[in-house]
Amino acid sequence: MTKKLIKDYMLITFGIILVALSVEYFFAPNKLAAGGVTGIAIVLNNLVPNLSVGVITLVLNLALFAAAFMLIGGNFGAKTIFASLGLSVVMWGIEKFFNPFAITTDLVIATAFGTIISAFGMAIVFNCNASTGGTDILAKILNKFFHINIGKSLLIVDIIITFAAAMVFGLDIGFYAMLSVIILGITIDRFIDGFNSSKEIVIISDRYEEISKFILEDLDRGCTYLKGVGVYSEKDIKVIYTVIGRSEFIKLKEFIKGIDKRAFITVRESYEVLGEGFMEIE
Asked: What pLDDT is attached to residue 247?
């Protein structure tokens, strides 16, 4: 097993622990069935209290994986199986040994903090090219048999779950669950963007040789010369293009400031960079 793979599994484990904590200490005690298999488990736990949310989640995930293998071929990676079943095991462990309770009974606070913690954990899992399974499988089944795209299928599944929560726990809790689903989708994307964001830099300077050397040797990053022509001077110029991390940009900016205060620099946020030195193309 490579170092990267070990790192991925460690991050996935950390991510599912965060999701489990959000469910056990914010969602489940306040009956907030905020979509997903854990949402179904919270609703079913109210109907069958002898079965814990963790146990129900495990049974549902096993049933969904079995259905997936029979209906859509079960083309799931090892990371997804690990994350999905691992989440159920962690939840069961919390219920078995830590006697979880509601950290807050204020539904606004529980919805906000539970959703943020869960979104951060799920973003870590997704960023490692895995998923927590569950309703993703239901969405794929809907996609195969009813030709509904995956995004809409996930939304339909989550709406059905939150509707069930409203029927079982009341409209107020149902609306909070729906709010959590909406915030979760938006927040996960923002967290993933934050994990992978880099700075896309374009530099025009007469000292381009020194700057490019600094990027290559001191920052250990690549850069490219783009050919340009100054409109006013009509002279050929070399434009430096590079993609670097935030901390590296601070160093680069200080270096340029020290050798050419007249340099022209543009900076753009890049939310996904694939290739050598960054994330692998998978």
From this structure: 84
Separation between Cα atoms, residue 46 and residue 60, nearest integer Å: 16
- How far apart CA 31 and CA 20 sit, in angstroms, is 15
Among 195, 210, 236, the domain-final residue is 195
Sheet holding 198-204: strands in order across?
Answer: 224-229, 236-244, 198-204, 264-270
Q: Are residues 34 and 69 in the same domain?
A: yes
Check whether residue 190 and residue 116 sit in a common domain: yes
Domain count for the chain, please give it.
2
For residue 206, what are the domain limits? 197-270
* End-to-end Cα separation, the chain, in angstroms: 17
Please identify which residue in the block is written with the tokens 């002279």.
235
105-147 pLDDT, tens per residue? 999 999 999 999 998 998 898 888 777 767 777 777 776 777 7
Q: Is residue 142 part of a domain?
A: yes
